Amino acid sequence: MIKPMEFAMDCKKEKNLERCNCSYDPCARKGICCECLSYHLKMRELPGCCFPKDAEATYDRSFDHFARLVQTKKI
Ligand code: SF4
Known about the structure:
Elements: H1 13-19, H2 33-42, H3 53-56, H4 63-71
The protein binds iron/sulfur cluster.
């Protein structure tokens, strides 16, 4: 039987934190991008890093907010 290829991938949390723009400091998912993305997608949202600084600071991470920013050419 052929086994699926197994590999271990180290989390790049420290490296990710260097470029994470999320201003919600108490979040335990900061720097763990896979968990961050999964958490927000479940709620029809995007991670803070998809938004410019002023939009990120509103904590409105909804698809609708993102779409409005695209439509008004702010992204
Ligand atoms: S974007 Fe959301 S899940 Fe990701 S670090 Fe910020 S608050 Fe946490």
